[in-house]
Design brief:
Helices cover 21% and strands 40% of the residues. The longest helix has 36 residues. The radius of gyration is 32 Å and the shape is elongated. The termini are far apart.
Length: 274
């Protein structure tokens, strides 16, 4: 943390020197120190689904930017620095090995950073600093990667009904309908994802169908289990059920017509032979 602080302080000093040297305005009173505007700070918490593209803006108006610097601090990795200097129209980088993190386009036109595709390892802090003649600008993104869990519902070897939300980020919540004697446990997987497993019993109750509902920031999912048949079934809206019944009835009518046609055709052939 102290190293990051010294790097940030050094970058601010460099930015101030650039502003002073690039400014065309001089003080009208000699011997007086020039006053500088303190950096304008902004912070954003950003949640992005895994395997999507994320674009981090910095800032919208950058036509007068002299120096743009992105500092990327990820877990268990040294800080990566990407910079663009307008005076010589050059970009530079240090400790940047992840090819999925790059400039979105030409940094002289748009210094936005892109992550494509987003992975679990991209959790962290992304700070953009801009030095311009009229002052300094700083914007920090706290990026959180979201991973939808894989949901399954099954009966284990002991006959217990198990609902599992595997490898989700953050951890999911599991609810049962109807309520029973249920127990949930979480298993961190080490990469930031968590598997949640809930077991439930309904001894002494006349329950034939149960549902497991998984709540997660990436979306909710429900699975249904028939305790008598030991199969998982999905619940359909009433309109879908009507369509299914209509299709089945139509197929049954086609079958009856076909059988009747064959029967009468054979009967007519038998009459001609007699």
């Amino acid at each position: 943390m102290h190293t990051l602080g010294r790097i940030s302080t050094l970058r601010v000093v460099i930015s101030i020197n650039i502003i002073i040297s690039a400014s065309t305005h001089s003080s009208s009173v000699k011997g007086k120190e020039r006053s500088l505007t303190l950096p304008a700070e902004a912070n954003t918490s950003l949640s992005v689904p895994v395997d999507t593209k994320a674009v981090l803006l910095c800032p919208p108006d950058n036509s007068t930017a002299l120096l743009v610097t992105w500092t990327i601090s990820l877990r268990d990795q040294p800080p990566c620095t990407r910079a663009y200097r307008r005076d010589n129209n050059e970009t530079s980088e240090r400790n940047c090995t992840d090819e999925r993190i790059s400039w979105e386009s030409r940094p002289d036109q748009n210094p936005a950073l892109q992550i494509d595709p987003v992975a679990i390892t991209h959790d962290g802090y992304y700070r953009c600093e801009v030095a311009a003649p009229d002052g300094l600008f700083g914007h920090t993104y706290c990026l959180r990667v979201l991973v939808p869990p894989k949901v399954t519902l099954f009966r284990d070897s002991s006959g217990t009904i198990v609902c599992r939300a595997a490898a989700g980020k953050p951890s999911a919540q599991i609810f049962w309908t109807p309520r029973g004697d249920c127990h949930a446990e979480e298993e961190p997987l080490g990469n930031g994802t968590v598997t949640v497993q809930s077991t439930c019993h309904w001894e002494g109750r006349q329950v034939s169908n149960v549902s497991c509902s998984v709540s997660h920031v990436t979306g909710n999912k429900s699975l249904y289990f028939n305790l008598n048949q030991s199969v998982i079934t999905l619940e359909f809206p009433a309109s879908d059920l009507l369509i299914i019944l209509y299709v089945k009835f139509s197929l049954f009518l086609v079958f009856l017509v076909t059988v009747g046609f064959i029967y009468f055709k054979r009967a007519r052939i038998a009459e001609h032979e007699n």
